[in-house]
Amino acid sequence: MKGKNLGEFEEIVLLTVGVLYDNAYSVAICDELQNQTGRSVNISAVHSALYRLESKGYLDSRLGEASATRGGKRKRKFTITSLGKKALDETMDIRLKLRNQIPDIAFNFGFDN
Amino acid sequence: MGKKQNHNTLPPKLALRFLSWYCTERRLEEIEGDLEELFYRDINTLGERRAKLRFWINVIRCFKPYAFKRKVRPIKDFLSMDLYINYLITSVRRMKRERSYSVIAISALTLGLLSFMLIATYLINEYKFDTFYPKKDRIYRVVQIEEHPGGVEHMAMTSIHLAEAIRNEIPGVAEAATVWPGVDGWVEANGKTFYESDYILASENFFQIFDQQFLMGSDKDPLKTPMSAVITESLAIKYFGTIDIIGEIMNVDRYGLYTITAVIKDLPGYTHMPFDMVLKPYFNRFFENVHPVFIPWFNSWEGHPCATMVLVDEDKPMEELEATLQTILPKYKGNEWEVRPYYLQNIAQVHLNETPVRFNVARVPQGDKSKIYTLTVIAVFLLVIAIINYTNLSSARMTNKLKEIGVRRCVGARRWEIFRQVMTESLLITFMSGVLALVLFFLALPHFGFLVEKELTINMQVLINLSLVIVPVLVLTGLLSGAYPAFMEMKASEQLVTWLSVRKNDHKGFRNVLVTAQFMLAMIMIVLTMIINHQNQFVNQKELGFSKETTLVMEINGGGVRQNYDHLKAALLAHPAISEVSGLSTMVGGFREPSEIDYITDGGDPEHPFVGSFYGFDEFSLSVLDLDLVAGRDFSGNPIADSTSFLINESLAKNVYPDRRMEEIIGETIRINEPDELEGTIIGIVKDFHFLSLHEKISPLVIGYITNPISGIDDIAMKFDPYYDYLELYTYIDDLHKKYEPTAQMTLNLLDDLLQVRYRADRSYQRIFMTGSFIVMFIALLGIVGLSAYSAQQRSKEFGIRKVMGASILQILSLQAGSIIKLIIIGELIAVPVILWWGRSWLENFSYKISISPYLFVFGAILLVIIGIVSVNLVTYRIARLNPANTLRDE
């Protein structure tokens, strides 16, 4: 399958789905992203990330309950699959591994010159 | 959130519709829900206006691939092929099950496509004239413009010396060749004698202009040496049985012994210069063989009966060339004659040209534009009517299919798949009809050639062009005829009701429009055919004013007959079947033009002459042609007295002497100024007769004695006994002719036959229209037969109940026929203005024409109605006569 690896935005969305656990649907994710990262995200961007993650097998979804606030429409709720968890862990590992390999000297921002 | 929402404000409707238009069903609910949730929240925080705006923005921003309808087809790829196969299988099954419907649909489409193919072939043959020469863009014909009192005439006849002068004088001309038509005659080759007419004489550079495919011999200067000949493959086979004949000798009538230097492939039929043999004579000694009298004429710069073909250099501006061309005549010819301007005509323009050009090397008539238009219109009519038929039948049958569609939808077919399925079926049927039409096409081609009076060529060039036309037409036909039913079925499949049970909406209104349109077209064709028939009958039966059944016409082709006219005449009269013989300048009837003259009356103004036609008659002409005098007398037979006497016709008398009685005009003087001066006294007035064709009005005519200087004897008319053995008579005259003109072929015809030729184009129209209207009517009939068979079947129970309630079969029949007849009559009414317009513009061509009689309309209308009733009743009767006990028990 092409594009196995996670994009930055995808990763954040995936994490947010995990955070929200049982209430992970697009509008909630949108709000949570805004709260947590402070960046304003359009609903459409969240949609496309979610559907892409689902097609990659990292997310599972089901239709949830309908509510009056939504004009009587049901919402699609997402949960992380084990494959999604694995992908998250891998990305995290790679980051951590790389982060740990950075020599201290690289962070020496030249007060000496 | 959690607050009671203000549901009075709803999201913008249009935005919602847009969303549901592009968004896949699978995702629609959740996306719509998300957007609405945001919207209601925005109303509370931002207010209604901004909420609506943001809703719009969100809808537009969601317009992304993940929401699109076509996006999600998870299992499409590996199933689609099977799906199409399944479409085909069910289509074939349905066609088998509803056999009579399939036969009707396919045969109507086949007929439509077949006619279209035939007509397309004809049109391609016309439009591709002379385009097979590789250098066609650079090949030009020299045409000369001649002005005379009658108007401007374009002539492709040039001097035989022009080609050489052009080659020497005009820069930018690569080659210039003289092409001379061969005269019918015998050819002796391989010990056998053949009669040939399609050959030409040409100068040695002919093949440098007109590239050919050489099968034998070298393509390098095959005509370099005089007395060499190049012949086509089929002629070589005919003469020698092989094409390996380089060096063989042929003896050609009048032209001598020729050596064959090359064999070329046959030419396609669509050329204005067809030939199967090209001879290179000693042009300079050419006429010595024929007659010494002609040598001065031959050496002059007069127009000879030959064409000059020019190959120009690439990128040479034509204006420059044509300008230089004008300098040639004054230079060579001097100023002894008025100089007539030349122009160059591209070879591809020779055939289909608005300007008539006199003289064609091979006497191939110029293309007839109006015939091309007519045929195109008929082709489109036929195709449209066939498409309508299919649309009609398949939309009528739709109800039968709804169950199948319902099942397909239940199993998971999408809307577009239903559309595709119906389309596949209509493309399949169109394709089957196309194949069938193609087979019939090759069978029908020769007959069609007869219909349009032209032998059609089928070669690679034509086939390629034909397929370029036919393939798109086939696809378009398939798509057009499937479009409506496919769309309607797709629509129907959206409604749950149709999935489960048959819904009774069979789109009757639309079908009615189509049936009306079909019968409108049929009516147009039928009445136009009748108008054309009537007009032609009118022309055939119209009293021409002279006798045509018992008159023989011999053309004078050579000096021998002209010089020995008196001897010949005596010998002709000696034959028991010939009662009278007369010499004329030109035979009357309009198949050859008489001379045009300018003349003035006594004391008339020479600056403003009258214009008229002129014939030379002798003292026997009136009686041979059975022409009557209304006043005065005929020529006396005394050449001296007759040479200053004129006969005139009634039209001239009425035109020039409007206030005088016929008798008073006798003795007046007429002076002819152009083309030669001639003065004479009117001795008699001839009753008007149609000396030109019936397309033209009878115009003023002056008849001089045959010894006049304007136009001398050129035709011999004979009155003969039609009960006499014609073959014996012909041989007798032919022998006489040979005695005086040993080398020329005699041309002897019945005047009636010659006149028939004159009206051939009109009769060709009649045949084309008759065939066309027959086919249109037939297809329209197939259509209503199919429709009413279907509707009778649908209504079989209704019929059963009606019968139980006491209706008779007749009442049931009239119930069915009534609805169709209404449509037929509406179609007929719509057709009337079209017919009037078209019929009138066709009749414009004739000076003597019928008025379009209302009876034709009534007759056409009744004919169609009767045919309609009969065919509807035939198919309905089968259902209507069934015992109600059986039809009602069904199910």
UniProtKB/TrEMBL annotation, chain A:
Domain Transcription regulator PadR N-terminal: 24-89
Entries under Gene3D superfamilies matching the protein: Winged helix-like DNA-binding domain superfamily/Winged helix DNA-binding domain
Superkingdom of the organism of origin: Bacteria
A Pfam family: PadR
InterPro entries: Tscrpt_reg_PadR_N (IPR005149), WH-like_DNA-bd_sf (IPR036388), WH_DNA-bd_sf (IPR036390)
Protein name: Helix-turn-helix transcriptional regulator
The organism's taxonomic lineage, starting at the top: Bacteria, Pseudomonadati, Bacteroidota, Cytophagia, Cytophagales
TrEMBL record, chain B:
Pfam families in UniProt: FtsX, MacB_PCD
UniProt keyword Membrane present: yes
Keyword Protein transport carried by entry: no
Protein name: Permease prefix domain 2-containing transporter
InterPro entries for the chain: ABC3_permease_C, MacB_PCD, Macrolide_Exporter_MacB, Permease_put_prefix
MacB-like periplasmic core domain segment(s): 102-327, 525-689
Domain ABC3 transporter permease C-terminal span(s) in chain numbering: 377-488, 772-884
